[in-house]
Write a structure and sequence with these properties.
This protein has 469 residues and is of the alpha/beta class. The protein has 2 domains: 37-220 and 450-468, 3-Layer(aba) Sandwich (Rossmann fold), CATH 3.40.50; 233-447, Glycogen Phosphorylase B (Rossmann fold, 3-Layer(aba) Sandwich). The chain is built from 20 helices and 14 strands. It has helices spanning 2-28, 36-41, 47-54, 72-88, 101-111, 125-135, 149-157, 171-179, 181-189, 199-207, 222-225, 233-241, 260-271, 290-300, 355-359, 380-384, 399-407, 417-429, 431-447, 451-468, and strands spanning 63-68, 92-98, 116-119, 139-143, 161-167, 193-196, 215-217, 249-256, 278-284, 304-306, 346-348, 364-367, 388-391, 411-413. α5 links the parallel β2 and β3 (116-119). α6 (125-135) packs parallel to α7, α13 crosses α18 and α18 crosses α19.
Length: 469
Amino acid sequence: MLGNWFFNLIYIVLLVIFSPLLVYRALKQGKYRHGFKQKYFGRIPRRRNILARTGSIDSPDTKIVWFHAVSVGEVNLLRPILKLIRESKSDWHCVVSTTSFTGMELALKLFGKELTVFYCPLDFSWAADKAMQRLRPDLLVLVEQELWPNLICAAKRYGAKVAIINGRFSENGYKRYLWVRRFIVPMFRRIDIIAAQSETYAGWFHRLGVSADSIRVIGSMKFDGAQSDRNNPETQHLKSLAGISDEDIVFLAGSTQSPEEAFAVECYENLKTDFPRLRLILVPRHPERFEEVAALLEAKAVLWQRRSQLREVEGGDSDMVLSFDSGMNLGVREGESSRKAVKPRILLVDTVGELGGWWGTAAIAFVGGSMGQRGGQNMIEPAAYGAAVCFGPNTKNFRDIVDLILRDQAAQVVHDQHEMEQFVRRCLEEPEVAEQFGGRAKKLVDRQLGATKRTLEMLETLFSADRED
């Protein structure tokens, strides 16, 4: 219990220090307002209510499996394993928690009709205890690097197994854990099993206190979750919605941070005259930056449109102009023929949870978060579609995936706007080069498939061990 209150004290101190920023974001950006009772007091759904909703009986064979995914990326990661469980484990009842508002929106969209979705309690001992008391899960599954001492301790106290799937660390995150290793070793020793993405991450978990017998190197589930068919319904819908024709060549900059959007816009502006079929799609990583990127486009005085303003015209005719709202609005009336007006060829995606579908429209892709200090973002999705992929030099959060991609010459590192433009220009001037990049990327993803099935088999062993006992 002393350890629990030690972490409580740390969290309270941090809360006080950062409270001005938290209040500002709550008021200005609408963050942190939702799920107050669940987050701070653990008032999540009760086990009996969940089972009643599904018409199940709380028998010894009934398993409540709680998956926790912090935000959008981790929520998306759960899609294939939850589908596999639904098809093969009738006695497993899964629930999903998330931390961020955008993660909650996506979780409700993907799973809300079939599964119970809620906000995860913050890692205060009283909130974690109350949540475990109400839900009494048989298994708590944490995605990637969601390691919370009080939550894990409460899970074990109420008899739940604890697993980490798709386990990894950012380089900085691992170093921070090393600094406080003496305080967190008990947490790591409470974890029953870990599915690590690579030997590197497995070694890091072991050095932090996890028994080597509890670690499995499974590979990354992100490969299994990546769509590879450009004709999938979501991509085709978005393509039609944006009026993207088969002759258009889409350069998509996704999961971006400043100044990556500016680089992509400059690149497009320098190439559009020579390549009139080129289109640019910008997908910023964080919703609070949508207006910042919109202001950038206004300042550049380019013709652009917002995803949130796209509306399908009657009959779904892609030759019809889709309505848009920007500073360069040329007075096109809704439904007016595109042959009577110039259509915007820059799209700002100011909605959440669609990036996977938009990647399917891209012939050339830049994966953002890689030219600043964020450490990169997931480059598997555009690779799976066979896009010609580039990203910046700072990709420490995805080091193993990057090593694989660069080893197979399936992408290229670009260090600045000039190199980004060179890469895009080469792909446009030499289509066979773009096809080679894309082909190698697609083959790499195909070779890495299967981690989701191996992960489920690993989770099954936790319950089979109980039966043997």
